[in-house]
Amino acid sequence: MNDPEALWSAFLAYLERAPAAGIPAELFAGFRDELIREGMPADRATEAVWGIVTMAADRRDWTAPMFDRIYASPEPGFSTQPSAFLVEVIEGRIAGSALDIAMGQGRNALYLASRGWKVTGFDVSREGVTVAQREAARRDLTFEARVAAHDEFEYGAAAWDLIVMTYALVPVTDVDFAATLVNSLRPEGLIVTESFVADPTRPPRPVEIDPDRLRRAYSELRILKFEDETTTSDWTHEPSRIVRMAAIKD
Ligand SMILES: C[S@@+](CC[C@H](N)C(=O)[O-])C[C@H]1O[C@@H](n2cnc3c(N)ncnc32)[C@H](O)[C@@H]1O
User: Fold this and answer.
1) Residue nearest to atom 27 of ligand 1 (CA)
2) β-strand 97-101 against 118-123: which pairing, if any?
3) How far is the CA of 185 from the centre of ligand 1 (A)?
């Protein structure tokens, strides 16, 4: 299979029938195994999957199918605990209105709700939203969850005391998107973000954040905390370079 579009279609078809998986890497590996089973030599299958990861950066038709498979897994491969950075940053702050962008299965949204925040969360994965709502009901927590993409959601103006984006597959450092988010923050409101930084040894992941672009995109805000370190992330099993920022609208 040499045609990149044919390969991409095969990948999308695979996602529709793939078994539930703990993290995205397992689904990419599963597709590689399928290519090998169909007769592709192993080194070409590795190259093909790296090509798919690269193509994914500019496409959106794979995100909901992939994350639906992940949130359907009874054994999540990512941390289901809230981001430790978020927990640290909100400690001692008065609970207000919070928005969790690309909330996944709601690990942060539910934590914030449990701490008295009035939380809205959204994600393109219907399965993620369903899991979050089910867990909220089980824990008797109230929060509003919607199936939506980052460019469909109405952020409003001066609406949020806290905006959270952890490993969010949205254009965090896009200047227009950042301006929309800053405008939607209340005075004293915080933006808290955390994700992978590019790794030159592997194809770029769509979820990566460039630390310099991050600072620039939110330069209107005052940075409270900025971390850039190699550590085990909430979404991988091996050490990765992670950037985290908490910034406030003075
Ligand atoms: C790596 S997960 C992170 C989930 C969650 N924030 C966390 O830290 O556990 C990336 C999430 O982005 C969601 N997503 C992808 N594209 C999106 C978009 N355009 N708008 C909103 N959510 C999106 C995916 O469905 C997935 O839940």
Assistant:
1) 104
2) parallel
3) 21
Cα 109 to ligand 1 centroid, rounded to whole Å? 13
Per the DSSP assignment, residues forming a β-bridge with 99 are: 120, 163
Q: Is 117 in the pocket of ligand 1 (CB under 6 A)?
A: no
pTM: 0.97
β partners of residue 118: 97
Closest alpha carbon to 49 in 7, 102, 109: 7
* Spatial distance between the Cα atoms of 192 and 86, rounded to a whole number of angstroms: 7
Within 8 A by CB and 6+ apart from 74, the residues are 20
Q: How far is the CA of 42 from the centre of ligand 1 (A)?
A: 30
Listed in sequence order, the DSSP H helices in 18-146 are: 24-37, 42-56, 63-71, 84-90, 107-114, 126-138
Give the separation between CA 106 and CA 111, rounded to whole angstroms.
Answer: 8
Task: Supply the Cα-derived Rg of the chain in whole angstroms.
Answer: 18
pLDDT in tens, 82-134: 999 999 999 999 999 999 999 999 999 999 999 999 999 999 999 999 999 99
**How many angstroms does the Cα of residue 170 sit away from the middle of ligand 1?**
7
| Distance from C-alpha of 148 to C-alpha of 125, rounded to nearest angstrom | 8
From 23, 61, 63, mutation site for ligand 1 pocket: most ligand atoms within 8 A of C-beta: 63
pLDDT digits over 164-201, tens only? 999 999 999 999 999 999 999 999 999 999 999 998 88
CA gap 203, 201 in Å, rounded: 7
172 lines ligand 1 (CB under 6 A): no
Indicate the length of the chain as a whole number: 250
